[in-house]
Amino acid sequence: MSYVLGIDGGGSKTVCVLMDDIHQVLGRGQAGASNYQSIGQAAALKSLETAIDAAAKEALKLTNNIKITAVCLGLAGVGRAEDIDIMKNILQKLINSQYLPIKWDLHPSNIIICNDAFIALMGGVGHPVGIVAALGTGSIFFGRNSQGETKRVGGWGYILGDEGSGYQIAVAGMQAALKAYDGREKYTRLIDDFKQYLGLESIEDLIAVIYRRGWGVKQIAGLAPIVDLAAASGDEVANNIIDHAVKELVTATSTVAEAIFPLDAVFEIVTTGSVWRAKCQIHQRFTASMIKFFPQVQVMFPQHEPAYGAGLLALQSLKG
With CB atoms counted within 10 Å of each terminal CB, which end of the chain scores lower, N or C? Predict the structure, then answer.
């Protein structure tokens, strides 16, 4: 029996699954962030060690003498050769750790270090061909065809990109509310909705919330559901914001598709991230638009989590 680790390391949490060679998850562990670019290598190592330890201890309840023969680390922000070298060094420290209750038998060809978008695709559709449209606080679009050709669009962060994301929707909503308050744009219920949700006496108090409280990107993105609910209730301004977001999502996804698939190709788009579950039917709007361009496309929610996709990639490496 072969055992592998699939690891999804992000900017907010780290998930590790320990799988056998029949795709069964024997253990799952979770820890804090492991993006070394934002928290440092020592903290990233600790999170990875904690997640692996939790998965291994759970697996040891079912089987003894676990020897890891392959590992896949799907990590946010990993793309350059320098990033991969750093993660290889961190992995070596994990292998040498005296705290992990597992043994290692890794060959270089069975160590996969890749971007987290790839493992989201693999977990989402169950195979490494298709497109993943990740939409949460930020946004990124990644595709791979059967020839192994890949294309990435977006992922440039909240200042330079993240079109269609929760952050951009929230900012557009607040801007629309303030423009309506000024009289520059038509009235929107977003004025009252933001006031009520944030406990403001006046919409002008948004200045204190956003600037003086030092709100970060994730806190601001957390206001996107206000725009979502307003759009779902029929607010025209909020719906215009959602329509614009959908247009950006379709453009980004179509750019990926056109780069690696012919127009008549049959392929899947897996939609991951919290924004796709919005009540304003953003998923349905996106799907309807994509089908106009690619009639054979299937838009779906993920079958499995990204960490499971990392595990599948690790198992795939054992087949040569």
Answer: C
